[in-house]
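lol so apparently i was supposed to do this last week
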Amino acid sequence: MAGRVLWNVPCTAHRTTDGLPCNAWSVRGATVCRVHGGMAPWVRRAAAARIELLETARRMNGLRTRMRDLIEQVEQETGRWT
Ligand SMILES: [Zn+2]
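anyway here it is w/ zinc ion bound
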């Protein structure tokens, strides 16, 4: 559960010099690198929201696992009486 969520996303921008994809690592939570606007405030805001959503999804996943274990436990317990 601990630890930061990974963000290994290549930059989606294209180089102005030759039009080829940039492919540098994007700023964490963003889809562009720092050269291609990754440090702009609106990009940082959107990036922070994505990271938060990812962390929420991860927490929910952990809760689902715990809930599944609990359900199984209760079913085993009650299964003896019915
Ligand atoms: Zn880039």
